[in-house]
Amino acid sequence: MADRGASALSLPDDWPAHPDPILVLNRMGSFDWDLDTGLMQMDAQAHEVFDVRADEYDDHPETLAKRVPPDESRRLDTAVSQALKDGSENYGAYFRIRRRDGSLRWTHTQGYIRRDDTGRPRRIIGIIRDATQELGESAARRDQAAQDEARRWQTSVVELTTAALAHARTVQDVIDVLKDTHGLTHLGAASLVMGLVEAGRIRLVAEGPADSFVPGTRVTRIDEPYPMSEAVRTLGPCFIESPQEFAERYPILWPHITDLEITSAAYLPLIVQARPIGVVGLLYSDRYGFTSEERNILVALGSSIAQSLQRAMFYEQEMDLAQGLQQAMLPRTIPSVPGADVAVRYRAATIGGSVGRDIGGDWYDLIPLPGGRVGAVIGDVQGHDTHAAAVMGQLRIVLRAYAAEGHPPATVMARASVFLHELDTDRSATCLYAEADLTTGVLQMVRAGHIDPLVRHTDGSCRRITVPGGLPLGLSAEFGRLDYPVGTIELDPGDTLLLCTDGLVEQPGADLDDGMRTLTALVDTGPEDVRDLADRLIDVAAERGGDDDVALLLLRRRPPDGPQSGRRLQRHVAPGDPGALAEARHMIRTAVTGWGADERADEIELVADELITNALMHTEGSAVVTLRAFTGSERRLRVEVEDSSSALPRRREAGDSGVSGRGLLLVELLTDVWGVEARGGGKAVWCEFVVPDSG
């Protein structure tokens, strides 16, 4: 090796004619090479370095060939020739010599070139010394530095892996971290295998290299002759330092993995509280054996993996429990609704680092109601935990019960709010309840602090429906505000109603209105089929992520298959409910208009109001108003008001004030025909209106 200009002893130009004492003190020999004659004289110390006696050396450099191996001689000649050609004043080189006993020793030489006035080299004087110890110490320092660097790197990899494992929530997350580029492969492992201890057996969850699965090892007993079993059985690491050792210790396993070219392996038991929960195996293909430091590092890393694995297993158990609870609270099936296509979806939130929080209080429900009507519910209980899911389940049940009893939407919502308030929980809930008559398309909605619904029309356009709202459930009872105004719209054949929770709308850095506009645009361009549209919306929510769950309900009113007859709309009107009569009137006007009978809408509404009022005033129960549409030789609308009293209505003369006694007179004047029918223990007063053909 060349070392031009470098020397342990720097000799100036005025090098004394007899420097022997200096050289001897530094254990160096000297030489004087006359380039004209080719003779090179050496002193006794130089003879000793070359391990030649004075009588064996004849001043010809060629005589030293028996001491300098050919390859070393060629390197030395190249270094000297290059220095002579390029005008250098000196050169230096390390080379090896072979001593009498056959051993090789490193030697260092430093030559100083003397030239004449023309620049021609005439003479080389220099030194030579044994450099074996020097290079040995240097190599030792390099080896030590390399070991220190390797130790620092291994420690760094362990720290990085441990930090990454701190964020792993599932068993698969733990495996992915270990397989990641910052994982165990940086410790030199070619691949890893991992098993979990379950009921006295080891279940394989990570198989190592692709296509390397060994038949019969998916589930193994702890007493079987496999390295993973041994590590779990003994609660100690199992280090395999060579292929031969692997073959001898595990003859059943080895024939199946010889193609992997494994040279060594380390199987580490994953122990938590003195109990094995799993085992991880590191497979190496480029190393043999493990130093004590490497073993200690791997054992420490195994402890870190065990802690992360236990957290992941606890998390998955908690998630199974939470998801099972929520699935039990949500409807198992959605009933088939004649005249409608329905799609529902639910997506749990993913809240990083929080065990058991991928669950919330969002829910949906679809409630079949008498008279061909259907109730659609969407709601969100405050919070993301099992308590929220439990409250949600109870609230869903009472909403369904109140709606099935026949209460109008406002009453259903008010009673649900009282129930949640009396439940003695710190949770509130937002909710939207829509009651649809699919024969008429009349849709009545009440909103308790929830976001507005959307309607997509048959032309693909989508718009937000502004529904007057009240306080969230649980708060309205607390603040004494149980009024929930009813919004009524008509859902045309082919229109789709979309109800959702705010997890589908809210986006980081954007307000609710921006989110609603984005959702509207998605629905605008979405598939026509409600199931495909629901899938697309939930996929968008999954891509966006977020810390809130999502519930979604889509209801599309099907176009009629042919001419419709006998269409019916029905509403219960309870006594003592001041808003119920107004809601019924609004419902009737909307339905009549939707059926194309605008010319008689005022008459029909006035007669229906009179009949309902009479039923409420002169009986002790509620009234049930039914509106029917018939087609045939002529189009007719029929209004029926049923009550629980068997007493027949009678015409009375108007009093002096003129404010009562005119009810049946109005019915006779405004209707085409009317009458009374017995209904069980009560009666129904009915009347019909002939309406012109809308075509």
Describe it.
The protein is of the alpha+beta class and 695 residues long. 34% of the residues lie in helices and 27% in strands. The chain contains 17 helices and 27 strands. The strands form 5 sheets. A 6-stranded antiparallel beta sheet has the order 8-7-6-11-10-9, with helices on both faces. Strands 13, 14, 15, 16, 19 and 20 form a 6-stranded mixed beta sheet that branches. The protein has a 5-stranded antiparallel beta sheet with strand order 2-1-5-4-3, with helices on both faces. A hairpin with a 4-residue loop joins β13 (361-368) and β14. α4 packs parallel to α9, α9 (292-329) runs parallel beside α10 and α15 (578-594) packs antiparallel against α16. It is elongated and about 160 Å long. The termini are far apart.
Key features?
6-stranded mixed β-sheet, alpha+beta, 27 strands, 27% strand, 695 residues
Number of helices: 17
Sheet/helix structural class: alpha+beta
Please tell me what the overall shape is: elongated
Q: Count every beta strand, where a strand is a DSSP E run of 2 or more residues.
A: 27
Strand order of the largest sheet: 8-7-6-11-10-9
User: What does the average pLDDT come to?
Assistant: 82
State the distance separating the first and last CA atoms. 107 Å
Question: Summary?
Answer:
The protein is of the alpha+beta class and 695 residues long. The protein has 17 helices and 27 strands.
